[in-house]
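Practice record 12: protein with zinc ion.
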Amino acid sequence: MIKACARCGKPFQVSDHPKAGRPRRWCSSACRRLASEERRAAEAGHTAVTFIKEAARLDDQVRAVLDSPSACRRILRELSDRDTRGALGDAKWSSVADELARLRRPSLPTRWRR
Ligand SMILES: [Zn+2]
């Protein structure tokens, strides 16, 4: 039988006639050890490992959007449409609505004027 590693998702082979004891959950002893370290860190309230991974992924996505004029245009248009429809009224989106209002203000700060 093939199972997916509970930590890294890699498939691994388990016996169809498992011996007594707990069924295997990890692809390797390295994953078993890391899973136990991560569990202990999480129990101690340190979720930094997961958080840093997520943050890095978000940064990569933002960079990818900023590298693409068409993606930037779509984001700006979509946010503007949402704002017009009142879909940014939620507290969660209020900072985005504020930023849009700032961008729409007709006069630029004095230091940008020529
Ligand atoms: Zn694994």
